[in-house]
């Protein structure tokens, strides 16, 4: 089989984009040997950097050090796509929970230019799934997004690859690690504000953690799962949503004394052919498996017509797990 070099382009070069660069570098030999493929990064783009191109491939070591001396600047997304000639575009920009933009524009343009569109960003999954999937089919390319929910744990691929003809009736889980860590810090006696600061200091919460605290992040995940796996388009504003701002240290202590733990529970259920979806803090009995989920771990349990409860529990994932989801999407896209 011919050894093929793929042109890869990155839109977004923060925690996830950088970790993906480093993961690919570590897997370079493996990919050459086992998958007979190589790769080069011909494009990189962020809000601050603009649209950077190197048609011959950036030096990854320089990229990792934020050295863009070998870059040429393009003046628009379209010109960047033309100049970088990507086989796959990796979209890892920040979540816009209300429109999914500009990530949808980025992924649409990737597909229109003949590249696979791979996203860690769940915004375009919720707001652009039908459009981008149809465009991918038309262009004989793939729109994949495994890392958008539960980091890189195989959720979408589990259903796509391993569970044909199954009927998903609902799910229940813990899908937001920031609120999980904040609630645990409050259980240790910290106030809400101190717990938020602690979660930022250890690098779990973003500098503006509002999307997590107000449960928008979790609502977008629930909407993404319902839209893709239950085939019922659901917007985040259709998810009954409650954040943790109003939860007090006293309520958490009272729950503890009562043998309960507060967790932000995500759920969706098919009721009379409609999705009823909710994200809210609940005081769970300590023997509920969801009450045991700690730190940055997450869990989801699927209710299907074949398995009453099929669960995936991901324990303390790091950024490598997110980057790995992008890698599995890429390999699946180029092998299909
Ligand atoms: N971190 C995780 O554990 C994790 C897990 C699963 C999924 N995700 C998803 O992955 C994505 C990236 O997360 P992250 O942690 O890497 O975020 P991050 O560190 O904040 O990086 C975001 C990157 O996106 C760029 N960006 C933001 N808006 C942009 C725009 N309009 N146009 C071009 N570039 C833009 C930023 O560029 P500037 O710095 O120039 O603004 C930055 O390079 C998010 O959608 C997140 O929800 C993250």
Topology:
Blueprint: E1 4-11, H1 15-26, H2 28-35, E2 37-46, E3 50-53, H3 60-64, E4 72-74, H4 77-84, E5 88-91, H5 103-112, E6 116-119, H6 123-139, E7 143-144, H7 156-162, E8 168-174, H8 177-187, H9 192-201, H10 210-213, H11 216-229, E9 240-241, H12 249-257, E10 260-271, E11 274-285, E12 298-304, E13 310-314, H13 319-335
The chain binds NADP nicotinamide-adenine-dinucleotide phosphate (NAP).
Question: Helicity range of the residues?
Answer: 25-40%
The percent range for strand residues is 15-25%
Radius of gyration equals: 21 Å
Low-confidence stretches: none
Give the helix tally. Answer: 13
The helix/strand series, from N terminus to C terminus, equals: EHHEEHEHEHEHEHEHHHHEHEEEEH
Distance between the termini: 15 Å
- Biggest β-sheet: count, sense, barrel? 7 strands, mixed
CATH class of the largest domain: Alpha Beta
Count of folded domains: 2
CATH homologous superfamily grouping of the largest domain: NAD(P)-binding Rossmann-like Domain
* Multimeric state: single chain
CATH architecture of the largest domain: 3-Layer(aba) Sandwich
How many distinct beta strands?
13
The residue-averaged pLDDT reads: 96
What is the molecular shape?
Answer: globular
Report the bound ligands by name, code or SMILES.
NADP nicotinamide-adenine-dinucleotide phosphate
Instruction: Give the spatial strand order of the biggest sheet.
Output: 4-3-2-1-5-6-7
CATH fold type of the largest domain: Rossmann fold
Secondary structure class reads alpha/beta
């Amino acid at each position: 089989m011919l050894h093929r070099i793929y042109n890869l382009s990155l839109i977004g070069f923060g925690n996830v984009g950088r970790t993906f660069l480093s993961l690919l570098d570590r897997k370079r030999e493996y990919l050459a040997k086992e998958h007979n493929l190589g790769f080069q990064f011909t494009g990189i783009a962020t809000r601050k950097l603009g649209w950077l191109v190197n048609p011959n491939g950036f030096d990854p070591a320089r990229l990792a050090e934020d050295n863009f001396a070998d870059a040429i600047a393009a003046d628009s997304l379209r010109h960047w796509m033309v100049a970088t000639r990507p086989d796959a575009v990796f979209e890892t920009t920040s979540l816009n929970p209300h429109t999914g933009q500009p990530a949808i524009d980025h992924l649409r343009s990737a597909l229109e230019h003949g590249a696979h569109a791979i996203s860690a960003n769940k915004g375009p999954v919720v707001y652009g799934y039908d459009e981008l999937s149809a465009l991918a089919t038309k262009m004989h390319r793939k729109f994949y997004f495994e890392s958008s929910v539960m980091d890189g744990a195989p959720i979408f691929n589990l259903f796509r690859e391993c569970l044909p003809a199954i009927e998903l009736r609902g799910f229940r889980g813990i899908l937001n690690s920031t609120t999980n860590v904040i609630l645990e810090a409050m259980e240790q006696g910290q106030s809400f504000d101190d717990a938020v600061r602690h979660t930022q200091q250890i690098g779990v919460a973003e500098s503006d953690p509002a999307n997590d605290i107000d449960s928008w992040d979790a609502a977008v995940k629930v909407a993404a799962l319902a839209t893709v796996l239950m085939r019922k388009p659901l917007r985040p504003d259709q998810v009954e949503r409650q954040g943790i701002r109003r939860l007090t240290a006293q309520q958490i202590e009272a729950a503890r004394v009562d043998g309960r733990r507060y967790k932000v529970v995500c759920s969706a259920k098919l009721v009379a052919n409609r999705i009823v979806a909710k994200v809210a803090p609940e005081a769970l009995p300590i023997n509920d498996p969801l009450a045991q989920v700690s730190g940055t771990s997450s869990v989801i349990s699927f209710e299907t017509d074949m398995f009453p409860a099929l669960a995936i529990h991901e324990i303390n994932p790091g950024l490598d797990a997110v980057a790995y989801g992008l890698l599995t999407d890429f390999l699946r896209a180029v092998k299909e």
